[in-house]
Amino acid sequence: MTKATFVKTYRNYSAADSYILGFTYAHNLYMIEVEEIMPRFLSVEEASRNQGENLRLRLKKKYKEQLLRKGAICIGSADDLNAEKYNKGEIFEKIVTEHFGQTWEKDTVPFWVQGDICVDNREIQIKLDSATLMNTKQISRLKGLTK
């Protein structure tokens, strides 16, 4: 599947109104809210466990620096991502959720149903650098749901 097709499919199914992207830079943890995830921030890679291909967030140094210039805010140390029993993406989601004064609970609600948090009636998907957005197996399942 081409990257353009992957991005278009993700955008068509995503229930998010916006996205909070997270990344580390110079030993700090940053976040920024964006309306859409720019295709240049994404790559198509082979997925693990027979899931086909996946669309991943991959922020190169130049993109991190661009996001810093656009207003990314520091919300902690890069070490904060290693502080708990969850994976880094879940820890980042917890940090962001608490940043907005909400209580975080681990969930498995799919991205096509709702965002990770709701702020001011906006569904927001939270993604840390290197996160998977979707894979080809999910696309097949989604297309089956809409028949």
Outline the structure in words.
By secondary structure, the chain is of the alpha+beta class. The protein has one domain (3-138). It is built from 4 helices and 8 strands; from the N terminus they run αββββαβαβββα. The chain has helices at 3-13, 61-69, 88-99, 136-145, and strands spanning 18-25, 28-34, 42-46, 53-57, 73-77, 117-119, 122-128, 132-135. The radius of gyration is 15 Å and the shape is globular.
> First CA to last CA: what distance?
21 Å
Largest sheet properties: 5 strands, mixed
- Approximate shape: globular
Strand residue percentage: 25-35%
**Rg calc:** 15 Å
Mean pLDDT value = 93
User: How many β strands by DSSP?
Assistant: 8
